[in-house]
């Protein structure tokens, strides 16, 4: 220890504060008081700049950064006594090392959290994918899942016209194919009338062609020179028969389009919303929502950890599952789709839900075939 250090210890003065040598206590406190004043002034300026319109808006972050650097300088000079004196080197090194450690800890933590957030699925997705312990060989595997509400079905008008009647109200339970509304579509009626008229006209021409052909064939038996006339009538008959067949197809299509004027329930379920009333005009081109139906079914996504179990299932297959909240009651469903992934995948099951017993958020368990 040098004589200089011994003298500083005797004066109870920190290294780097050699200027306080020989000063009285109240004189040494002047440096701390000045630092306190400067620190308070810089803090007040920071609040002033952020709460007033004195500075240009985009320049406020720059001003705050300058004040922050100045604040650090005040603390280092007036409170930590970091100066350019030779005895202040140890303090400077200690501060630099501490800053490096803090930067490494904070930077490393942020880096780890960023990559975990990037590579891991959200917690809301991980909870339904919780896996159970591997079963013994030859046993089935239990896959857990969470019940979701089936997506509502939107029904819009397929034809334009005037709503003649409405037979389904919001909140009503309906069966698939049940008539909910009828639209009076003049365009469909006009197309139907035109198709029927065109069919009658072509059928009349076919009848005339057949009569003329029969008469021409009778004459050609007596007069061989009339054979050319017979060939022409046969060609005309063939052409009119094709026209009659085409007119019949158009009439059948027009009759089929008459069903577009009937709004029916697409599935068993509940009417969530009704946006039409009798006497209202609807436009098919506007894709206006007429009814919103909630199917009486539930969707369950089961997480399966075994790829072999996925291979044993296929879409359309009937499966059974139990629901914890309903005292392990068993339900039947149909495999809607299978989504394979790394190390397993998920089985999406659709089940009938009469009475809405299966509610969104309930936990279900599915037994998949053994490997």
TrEMBL record:
Residues 154-287 form the CzcB-like barrel-sandwich hybrid domain. SUPFAM superfamilies: HlyD-like secretion proteins. It is found in: Cell membrane. The chain crosses the membrane at residues 31-50, 62-82, 94-114. GO terms for biological process: electron transport coupled proton transport. InterPro entries: BSH_CzcB-like, Cyt_c_oxidase_su4_prok, Cyt_o_ubiqinol_oxidase_su4, RND_pump_MFP. Residues 230-264 form a coiled coil. It comes from the Bacteria. Keywords: Cell membrane, Coiled coil, Membrane, Transmembrane, Transmembrane helix. It holds the Pfam family COX4_pro. GO terms for cellular component: efflux pump complex; plasma membrane. One of its GO terms (molecular function) is efflux transmembrane transporter activity. It is a multi-pass membrane protein. Gene3D superfamilies: 2.40.30.170, 2.40.50.100, Helix hairpin bin. Belongs to the membrane fusion protein (MFP) (TC 8.A.1) family. This is Cytochrome o ubiquinol oxidase subunit IV. The lineage of its organism: Bacteria, Pseudomonadati, Pseudomonadota, Alphaproteobacteria, Hyphomicrobiales.
């Amino acid at each position: 220890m040098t004589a200089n250090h011994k003298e500083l210890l005797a004066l109870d003065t920190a290294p780097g504060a050699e200027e306080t040598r020989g000063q009285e206590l109240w004189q040494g406190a002047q440096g701390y008081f000045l630092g306190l004043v400067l620190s308070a002034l810089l803090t007040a300026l920071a609040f002033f700049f952020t709460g007033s319109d004195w500075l240009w808006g985009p320049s406020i972050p720059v001003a705050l950064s300058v004040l922050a650097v100045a604040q650090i300088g005040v603390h280092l000079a007036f409170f930590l006594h970091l100066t350019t004196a030779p005895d202040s080197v140890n303090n400077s090194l200690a501060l630099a090392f501490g800053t490096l450690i803090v930067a490494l800890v904070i930077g490393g933590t942020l880096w780890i959290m960023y990559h975990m957030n990037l590579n891991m699925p959200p917690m809301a997705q991980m909870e339904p994918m919780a896996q159970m312990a591997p079963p013994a060989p030859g046993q089935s595997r239990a896959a857990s899942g969470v019940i979701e509400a089936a997506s509502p079905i939107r029904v819009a008008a397929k034809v334009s016209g005037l709503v003649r009647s409405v037979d389904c109200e919001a909140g009503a339970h309906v069966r698939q194919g049940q008539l909910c509304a009828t639209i009076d579509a003049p365009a469909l009626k006009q197309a139907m009338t035109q198709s029927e008229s065109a069919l009658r006209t072509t059928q009349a021409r076919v009848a005339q062609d057949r009569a003329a052909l029969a008469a021409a064939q009778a004459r050609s038996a007596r007069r061989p020179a009339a054979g050319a006339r017979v060939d022409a009538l046969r060609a005309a008959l063939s052409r009119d028969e094709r026209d009659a067949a085409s007119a019949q197809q158009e009439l059948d299509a027009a009759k089929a389009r008459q069903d577009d004027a009937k709004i029916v329930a697409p599935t068993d379920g509940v009417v969530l919303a009704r946006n039409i009333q009798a006497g209202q005009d609807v436009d098919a081109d506007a894709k206006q929502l007429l009814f919103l139906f909630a199917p009486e079914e539930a969707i369950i996504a089961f997480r399966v950890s075994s790829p072999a179990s996925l291979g044993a299932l296929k879409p359309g297959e009937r499966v059974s599952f139990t629901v914890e909240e309903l005292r392990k009651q068993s339900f039947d469903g149909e495999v809607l789709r299978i989504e394979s992934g790394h190390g397993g995948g998920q089985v999406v099951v659709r089940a009938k839900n009469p009475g809405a017993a299966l509610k969104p958020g309930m936990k279900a368990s599915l037994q998949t075939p053994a490997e």
